[in-house]
Design a protein that fits this description.
By secondary structure, this protein is an alpha/beta fold. The chain has a seven-stranded parallel β-sheet with strand order 11-12-10-13-14-7-15, with helices on both faces.
Length: 689
């Protein structure tokens, strides 16, 4: 074997055929293509995109790999190791996905194989066998069209099969033809979602945003192109799937997400490899899905942290979508009730258009920051008098949504005597209560604290510091006797509630749909949500409140409790982009993301020092730190301009590879040196500041 440059022209040589493969290895120094000889007996089955096994190093070890290219041998004069076997004849790695994985890895100083691990599901032999049998039974069709050059709109394909084509569905609520024209020309834009809920089919209600994306996908499919729709979690997926089923023919949607079983996920992935255009619906991994004649990439609520990948190279689906749009020329849309500062920056520099709804009117939001609760039960439930009256009147006609900050009964407890936070005696984690009758338990290790004693004053009694959804439901149940109380959070997921009087206590992001919308919405715990130490706390809270307020019925009151200033003004006027614009101005002055990019470099002191020294001389770079992080490690923050991104990523990647190549494992035995911590680089960490 020998390393190869995947972008170079096939070199001359002795004319023998070689396969250039990407090894499935976690070692960063192996993030390149390797040449292997193609045995004559495998010459017909080794093609770009198939899974193979190849020998690596010694002792007969075999490594999984993807074939990226097949070409002639280069100038290497030694004998190449032959490919051992072909794992599957299916082409699961398409050229477009490989280019995307390589670009994502290079942008984040990571490995392409790390990207491919969550872009391509693990192989399921039975599912694959059934797929191949079905493919053999189908008549051969015309060859797929070549992908459009990067940065251009895809060429008009041949008309789709009428039996499988979607009808012309206009995107309603926006200037006539604006969404359709943007899709047809491969444009990039950001758009505010229309608030409210709609009945997409008899008895099925979804957010209006879901119907907007479904109509856009139907227009794309009618033009013979595929669409990728990425959402934060399964709740959004369920709504969007219901909307898609109301406007698309059966069998047009391929759904993929982490909640599926491995066979179902692999089956959905294989369906995307076919020649017919599809609508691909999923969470953050959907932006990597193979799609024939890709015409649209759309992200819903791109500011949600669930769009960020927690594994290296930590790519956000927004950035992946931007890279894929630039490579494929497909249209790109960001839709949300609020807007992140990253998208606002792209709008201001002209990379994205701003496409506003025809009627931008929002819910009737009423800030109550200066009002106090007068009723005793209202004081316990943290509800001011105006909101209390609005909830009581609204319960006469339908359900009322109450959004709270935290799940559980009492997420945080403290000593009643000295007020110190109650900590677990085993791991020092915070103590809380999940129910009124349950014993206090640790939020980290789950250990019960039935015999807890304060380490500061030896007190044995606890008091509530914060109140969760369970406690709020209990207090409101006493205040409104006879009214049904529904709790919706991560442990008790509720997708929809009936259109009859009920108090729905929901944590942020877990709000169910009510047919026709809620009669009133109460947004509690605003001060607690804003108390989090984060640069993004303001835009996060605005997004949570906007998504909850959008579930209100037309002209129903939305009471924002305990919050004023720019956030309350942005929600009240339903001009969330104004808040993002102001935030961006402040961050430019302070040189904070997304005005600049940033990367964290974490590890032992010497490797971190060498890594940051390599980037200090790059134009537009400044370094904060290093400072102590975890035990035995330090962390430095590298800030840099967008134009220097590739140079900084290349330098930090070289430092990671050098550290991995020279790091030695400790030998067993007393007095043996401890292994040196690995060097970790993370670009665009949302919680750096």
């Amino acid at each position: 074997m020998t390393a190869a440059d995947p972008l170079a022209s096939p070199p001359g040589g002795d004319g023998s055929v070689v396969a250039r493969v990407a090894l499935d290895s976690p070692l960063p120094q192996l993030d390149r293509l390797f040449d292997y000889a193609v045995p004559p007996e495998l010459a017909g089955s080794i093609v770009p995109g198939v899974r193979v096994k190849v020998p690596f190093r010694s002792a007969g070890r075999l490594s999984d790999a993807f074939v990226v290219e097949v070409g002639t041998a280069g100038s290497y004069e030694g004998a190449l190791s032959p490919v051992d076997s072909v794992v599957s004849p299916l082409v699961v790695l398409t050229p477009e996905v490989w280019r995307l994985a390589r670009a994502v890895a290079d942008r984040g100083a990571g490995s392409a194989i790390d990207v491919l691990r969550f872009a391509i599901p693990g192989r399921q032999a039975r599912v694959e066998k059934a797929f191949l049998a079905a493919a053999d039974a189908r008549p051969a069709g015309p060859a797929p069209a070549d992908p459009a050059p990067a940065g251009t709109a895809p060429a008009d394909p041949a008309p789709a099969d009428p039996e499988h084509a979607a009808g012309p569905v206009p995107v309603t609520g926006y200037p006539a033809g604006r969404w359709e024209g943007a899709i047809d020309t491969g444009a990039r834009w950001a758009s505010a979602a229309l608030p409210g809920v709609v009945e997409c089919s008899p008895g099925v209600w979804v957010g209006r945003w879901a119907l907007t994306l479904a109509q856009a996908a139907a227009h794309t499919l009618a033009g013979g192109r595929s669409a990728i729709l990425a959402v934060p979690d399964y709740r959004d997926q369920d709504q969007l799937q219901a909307a898609l089923e109301s406007v698309l023919p059966a069998g047009s949607v391929a759904r993929t997400d982490a909640r599926q079983s491995n066979p179902d996920r692999y089956r959905a992935f294989l369906s995307c490899l076919g020649e017919e255009p599809r609508v691909i619906l999923g969470t953050r991994s959907a932006v990597y899905a193979p799609a024939r004649r890709l015409g649209l990439i759309a992200l819903w609520d791109e500011g949600d942290p669930l769009h960020g990948e927690p594994l290296a190279p930590y790519a956000h689906s927004r950035d992946v979508a931007l890279l894929r749009q630039e490579q494929s020329g497909a249209a790109l849309a960001f839709l949300g009730h609020s807007r992140s500062t990253e998208v606002e920056r792209l709008v201001e520099i002209g990379w994205l258009r701003d496409l506003a709804p025809s009627s931008p009117a929002g819910p009737r939001v009423i800030p109550t920051v200066q009002q106090a609760a007068q009723d005793g039960f209202a004081q316990l439930a943290r509800i001011p008098s105006t909101a209390w009256r609005a909830a009581r009147e609204a319960l006469e006609s339908g359900p009322v949504l109450v959004q709270v900050a935290r799940p559980g009964y009492a997420p945080l407890l403290a000593c009643q005597s000295c007020g110190q936070a109650a900590r677990c005696n085993r791991c020092n984690g915070p103590l809380g209560k999940s129910s009124s009758s349950g014993a206090p338990s640790c939020g980290w290790c789950g250990a019960l604290a039935a015999d807890w004693r304060c380490t500061h004053c030896s007190g044995e009694r606890l008091r509530f510091v914060s109140v969760g959804a369970g406690r709020t439901a209990e207090e409101l149940g006493r205040a409104f006797p006879g009214v049904r109380v529904v709790v919706a959070d991560g442990d008790r997921p509720v997708q929809e509630v009936p259109a009859r009087p009920a108090l729905v206590i929901a944590t942020r992001g877990a709000e169910p749909i009510a047919p026709g919308g809620y009669s009133a919405v109460l947004l509690l715990d605003g001060e607690r949500m804003l108390a989090r130490e984060s640069l993004r706390v303001g835009e996060d809270c605005l997004r949570w409140w906007s998504n909850a307020a959008s579930l209100a019925a037309p002209r129903a009151p939305v009471m924002l409790v305990g919050v004023g200033g720019p956030l309350a003004r942005a929600l009240n006027t339903w001009r969330q982009a104004d808040y993002a614009r102001g935030e961006l101005v402040d961050r430019r002055a302070l040189r904070f993301p997304p005005a600049v990019r940033a990367a964290t470099v974490t590890g032992a002191a010497d490797p971190v020092a060498r890594a940051v020294d390599d980037v200090r001389g790059i134009r537009g770079v400044d370094v904060l730190g290093p400072v102590d992080a975890d035990t035995g490690t330090v962390r430095a923050i590298v800030r840099f301009d967008y134009g220097s991104g590739s140079e900084v990523a290349s330098a930090l990647r070289s430092a990671v590879v050098q550290n991995a190549s020279t790091r030695r494992k400790g030998t067993p035995g007393k007095g043996a040196p401890r292994p040196q911590p690995s060097l970790r680089v993370r670009f665009d960490d949302p919680e750096i500041f």
